[in-house]
Specification:
about 200 residues, about 75% helix, elongated
């Protein structure tokens, strides 16, 4: 029935976009504006991460004056967390760019609003994951630069970051539940479409 045409020669999909054209354009415009704002945020985060990784002074690598680990271990934590955080931040930028730019310039309706929402959700997850990895980088950089400070300051920074994380999850609990539900729904739909494409029973 997806390929059948009515009296005026329109398929169900073409009829839907014709009758909901204004709503479709409004939804796409809102998603593009959100993605554009988050793209700026991701750009700032990746700029700070790269700058931090390149400006940390490297000296006395094998010294053990730092708390818990040697300076070499803290350097490893710093650069690994910055590397993975940067990669996740770049992936979020790609997701946001795919929301802003249409798949087909001739027919904007070829990419549904739901697909763009899914891309935006994946971009948000990547962005928050990169922010989470920037926190260990911040702790490592603080230890390497201010190694003369007492160890209790490190505990204070870790506790403060954990408290912020708990408060965020408490306030945005339903948002993350909705994001997880959207991701699972997209994966199930993708699997069903692939099974139908290859002639398997869903």
């Amino acid at each position: 029935m997806k390929t059948m045409r009515n009296k005026v020669g329109l398929t169900p999909k073409e009829l839907f976009y014709e009758t909901h054209e204004s709503l479709h354009k409004e939804s796409i415009s809102g998603l593009q504006a959100t993605a554009n704002t988050l793209l700026v945020v991701a750009t700032l985060i990746i700029s700070l991460g790269i700058t931090g990784g390149m400006t940390i002074p490297i000296e006395n690598i094998h010294s053990r004056n730092t708390p818990f680990f040697s300076r070499k271990t803290w350097y490893t934590f710093l650069f690994v967390s910055i590397a993975f955080g940067t990669c996740l931040c770049v992936s979020s930028m790609f997701f946001y760019a795919s929301v802003i730019l249409p798949v087909c310039w001739a027919k904007a309706e070829e990419e549904s609003v739901r697909l763009r929402q899914t891309k935006l959700i994946f971009g948000n997850v990547s962005l928050f994951a990169s922010l989470g990895l920037m926190f260990p980088a911040l702790i490592s950089a603080s230890v390497l630069i201010f190694e003369f400070l007492s160890s209790w300051i490190l505990y204070f920074i870790c506790g403060l970051g954990f408290m912020v994380f708990v408060v965020h999850l408490t306030l945005d609990y339903y948002r993350w539940i909705g994001i997880a539900g959207s991701v699972l729904s997209y994966l199930k739909d993708f699997q069903r479409r692939e099974q139908q494409r290859y002639g398997q029973s869903p």
